[in-house]
Write a structure and sequence with these properties.
alpha+beta, globular, Alpha-Beta Plaits, 10 strands, four-stranded mixed β-sheet
Length: about 190
């Protein structure tokens, strides 16, 4: 049986430094145009003075098992937006027709069209650095994180199973069965899109 990759993000450890965003941008410099990002750090503030707290949350493709973007893709017989055997959501730029259906379908609002990019003017989002995974490497964001925020691997691995017991998906009410989970920071607000 194929591996099913998941990413667990520990919100207690994230300082909002954007090393993951920079690593992603560098890894995909020929695919992601200026002004667009496959991953972003969102600063979520909660509370009232003098009891204010901030949580930094990395947001990118959730690699949903029940992916609305894949369902919305009109390309047939092989969809441009599709799942790999490992459960990773990818966009095949050779098949993408730039219709934007997948962008509109994403409830997390993390997919976009590369309208200003002369190299790749197709739909785009995080792909867990799929070419790196195929070479036996981890995603660039996980390798370059200075706070050890990320745990990445096959869902069947014991250390992944242990961390998943502490983690929650973002917006379970969307019923997409995402492959990205967050370890919340106490009772601080973090679930907003």
């Amino acid at each position: 049986m194929a591996k099913r990759y998941v990413m667990i993000i520990d919100l207690k450890r994230c300082a909002g430094c954007n090393a993951c965003t920079v690593a992603c941008k560098q890894e995909w410099k020929d695919k992601v145009p200026p002004g667009e990002f496959r991953s972003k750090i969102k600063e979520i503030e909660s509370g009232k003075y003098p009891h204010v707290s901030v949580v930094y949350r990395r947001t990118a493709c959730m690699h949903c098992a029940d992916a609305p973007c894949v369902k919305a893709c009109p390309v047939e017989p092989v969809k441009a937006s599709r799942k790999t055997a490992e459960g990773i959501t990818i966009v095949d730029e050779k098949l993408c027709i730039q219709c934007g259906a997948c962008v509109e379908a994403c409830p997390y609002k993390v997919r976009y069209l590369n309208t200003d990019n002369k190299v790749n003017d197709k739909a785009d989002s995080c792909n867990f650095c799929y070419p790196r995974i195929q070479r036996g490497e981890k995603p660039a964001c996980t390798v370059n994180c200075v706070g050890n925020v990320f745990t990445f691997g096959d869902i069947k691995e014991p250390h992944i199973q242990k961390k998943l017991k502490l983690a929650k998906p973002l917006r379970p009410d969307f019923k997409t069965n995402p492959s990205v989970y967050y370890i919340p920071f106490r009772n601080r607000k973090w679930e907003t899109i």
